[in-house]
Write a structure and sequence with these properties.
mainly alpha, 2 strands, 129 residues
């Protein structure tokens, strides 16, 4: 693209700044981050090593790794789909706090300590054994 055309397009808001970090002709391959695996380090901070796989499996079934996931049929929300109506008051957090990944994973650990994995339906159905 010639410089005059670029400045015209830039001025009109069609073209943006040029990324000069990649030499011309090189192919850039972006790393695709798995939506559940990206939470592995945080899950590993809260769950024992032999439970991390099960925790991630449950997260995958419950929210697909989306911290903003909502269940339209209940008050379940966040990564582990924690029931806000049941657990938020018990752990003295707001239901809005359940969308925060750190809080959601921390509470999942607390729930696991109290009830084991049976608190989550994917485990009950045998999907994450």
């Amino acid at each position: 693209m010639n410089l005059i055309l670029f400045f015209c397009l830039y001025w009109m808001g069609i073209a943006g700044p040029v990324d000069v970090s990649v030499p011309a002709g090189e192919v850039v391959i972006e790393e695709v981050v798995d939506p559940v695996e990206r939470w592995r380090p945080l899950v590993a901070d809260y769950f024992p090593p032999d439970e991390i796989g099960t925790a991630l499996c449950i997260m995958d079934h419950e929210s697909g790794g989306d911290p903003d996931a909502d269940n339209p049929r209940s008050t379940a929300s966040g990564l582990f789909q924690i029931l806000g109506s049941l657990w938020a008051p018990r752990f003295d957090v707001s239901t809005a706090d359940l969308y925060e990944p750190l809080t959601n994973i921390r509470l999942a650990r607390e729930i696991w300590e109290l009830q084991g994995w049976s608190a989550w339906s994917p485990y009950q159905r045998g999907a994450c054994h």
